[in-house]
Amino acid sequence: MIKKSGYLFLGIAVVAIYEGLLLGFTYFILFASILFFTVSSEIIIFNMVTTSGLRSLEVRRFVDNTSIRKGEKLPIKLKFTNVSGRRIAFHYYDTLSDVFTISGPSEGYVSLAPGEERNVTYVLASLAVGKYIVGPVIVYSEDPMKLCLSMYKLERQIEVKVAPALTEIRAARTELLSNIRYSMGVHKSRVIGQGYNFYGIRPYDISDEFRYIAWTRYGIRDGDDLYVKQMEEEKVLNVYFVIDYSISSNFGFKGKRMYDRMVISAINSAYSVIKNRDDVGFYLLSTEIDLFIEATHSDASISKLETSVSELRPSGHFDIMSALDRIRKKIKRNALIVVLSPMSEIDDFKAPKGSLFQVGKKLVLVVLSPSEFAEKRDWDQNYTLLLKSALVSRQLQIKQFSRTMNSIGLKTILAEDSTLQRKIINEYQYAKMVN
Amino acid sequence: METERSEASKAKTYLFNAMLISPSIFLLLFGLSYALPDMNPYIYIPLFLLPLIKRLSPKLIRLNTYRLVVIIFLLLVLDTIFSRLAPNTPIVGGIGVPITFTTMFTVEICLGYLLVVESLFANKPYHVIGGMIASLALLGEIYAAIAFLNSPYFNEFVTGYGIVIGKFALGSISRLQMALIGVAVLEFAAITSLIFNGFMTFMPLYGGSPHSLVLPYSRLLLGLFGVSFIGVVGRFYVDGEKDETFRLEGLFYSVIMGVVISSIVVYFAGLFQGLDYQFMVISILVIIFLIISSASSRLTPKALKLEE
User: Fold this and answer.
1) Which of A67, A246, B146, B214 fits A286 for a cystine, CB–CB 3.0-4.6 Å?
2) What DSSP character marks residue A188?
3) Residue B242's pLDDT is what?
């Protein structure tokens, strides 16, 4: 294929020929003719000879495992084989998402003798959860004057599923830490009933069962008074994390993306919830994604979420009113619902009238601020000023939205990336207290 | 180390640029040696300093220098016209560009100079080649005017010019400027001949035409065009990647093919034999090669479908 510069060059050479002809400048005509015929010959030779060699190139990609965890290294081997009868020289690159960090030659220049094979291995690691496409391998060649380009896609693409990293969720899974959290007072439910924890004693009543009598307290006041033990009843709280999985939650750069942080924070919080013997479920929502994971008493729902997010990419839009409607329909049990969203699509938001926003359950809307997800470029003053201005404006917008939602009775809190999990746990603790 | 390498590469680039535009540089110097006394210093001094001013200016001005100059120049021309139409209007203030042939003559040479200087420091090969071709169009005319000035037919032209248009059109002009008008007339005649006869007969620099000219430094120019061609190849070599020696073999074959084909073309076009159909012969061959190039391009689509 002739590039624009090729056509431009040919055009210049043709103009030069006619310019020489108009002036009758013989040497100039000779020079321009040599220039034109050299360039056109080069184009023809490249298109008809060099390019045909590229068609005879075989490329294979070898990957041991397509399911990895975030940050885990995945070696990818490319094998180039020249099955033509002449030498082939080409550039190649594997098409990769920007969530991958790459070490090794994922792109380069290869020259192969007839029948020669070349193996190239590079290693990639994902910076975010989700399903990402690796490939195809693009092979291209340019003529020496860089006027033509020949480009081929030579290997099928593969899908790499990236689950959350163990290093990020291990803290919450570690027994020690979760036990500390547990004993620090997450467990606030103090309702008298049947349970294992001792609550106190009260005087015996004729309707009390005999087995609850606290014999150790018998006759402590007047010799024959009886008391019964009161136990603290375990009340299970269902917690659902509703995560905005719209395209706007894909905001961020390299290793820091909103959807990824929301998923990690939800998983970490979910482990705390499970340790507290409560049920946890998830709901990934957008106009294109509707993935509901029923609350379970074990970590089965978390495992299901990990698998699910490794096969999903944020897409579609997120509208809070339709999300509330879907939550109302899906979650029938009494529960604490934590909605995690950057709320990026609230430009024309107006407070709803009536009871449209009511879901009949404890609901907290946690709005994630974009300020820690914007790429910093200290060397670019204009960019920094523009970013600062945009973030201030966005922050004001979120605050206004938050005030509106709070005024209609829907609890809304703002969170930064660094404070997101702490705020979720705070809301959970509060819900346990009032449960 | 990296900086040293890039400095060396830059120096090579400028060297090949200089080789590439050496015919233009020569024509510029040769033209200036004749034309400088006939040029308007109030125009050429600022324009000659323009590349230097551009490089010393802040980025915003640097990127728009030539646009600004064109706007200022056109405003000055408008101001001049306006001051002629309404001499007492206070806005014009006497600043303007004299609308004379000397001004146009100066601007033409200055444009050639600017193209040469900008091509010398251009980064992309086709910018250099484009600049060279454009500058050759302007400076080639000055070269032709100098050749015409030294020809025995020039005096006849001066007499004819004086009788027909000299009194009315362009005020007092120098002999070189008059020769340039002569070149323009010959070019017009060549195009007219092409349209009505199908061939060109009055090309200003064509040695075989009736008013045969003696071209100054013609052998040197031939050598410089050779140097220029080496510069083209060298420029692409510098621009290419060094480990791609294999690909440079392709360039070698192309150069051989280009030289052979153009020699055949020039031979058959009869340029050296004085035939008049060179325009048609060259045009046919150029079109054939353009068609083949374009057709070969279709053989190599940008991207094939995924192979199963």
Assistant:
1) A246
2) -
3) 55
In CATH terms, the fold of domain A55-162 is: Immunoglobulin-like (2.60.40)
Interface touch A23/B244, C-beta < 8 Å = no
Peptide bond into B58 cis (omega under 30): no
Report the pLDDT averaged over residues A42-56.
82
- Cβ(B177)–Cβ(B107) below 8 Å: no
pLDDT given at position A241: 94
Q: Determine, for residues B289 and A36 on separate chains, whether the beta-carbon distance falls below 8 Å.
A: yes
Cβ–Cβ < 8 Å for B65, B53: yes
pLDDT in the model for residue B87:
67
Mean residue pLDDT of chain B comes to: 79
- Pairs across A and B, CB distance < 8 A: 206
H or E element at residue A226: none
Interface pTM, i.e. ipTM: 0.83
Please check whether the two domains, A55-162 and A166-187+235-434, share a CATH topology: no
Report yes or no: A51 at the B interface, CB cutoff 8 Å: yes
The one-letter amino acid code at B44 reads Y
Q: How far apart are CA B74 and CA B200, in angstroms?
A: 36
Compute φ and ψ for A418, nearest 5 degrees.
-70, -20
Domain boundaries, chain A: 4-54, 55-162, 166-187+235-434, 192-233
Residues of A in contact with B299 (CB under 8 A): 47-48, 51
Q: In whole angstroms, give the CA distance from residue A335 to residue A235.
A: 12
Chain B residues near residue A32 by CB distance under 8 angstroms: 133
Domain A166-187+235-434, architecture per CATH: 3-Layer(aba) Sandwich (3.40)
Is B308 in Cβ contact with A33 (below 8 Å)?
no
**Which residues in chain B have Cβ-Cβ distances shorter than 8 Å to A151?**
302-303
**Residues B186-206 pLDDT 10s:** 888 888 877 887 666 667 776
- Tell me the per-residue pLDDT of A115-155, one tens digit each, with 9 for 90 and over: 899 999 999 998 888 888 887 888 888 887 778 888 888 76
Q: Rounded CA gap, B78 and A226, in Å?
A: 114
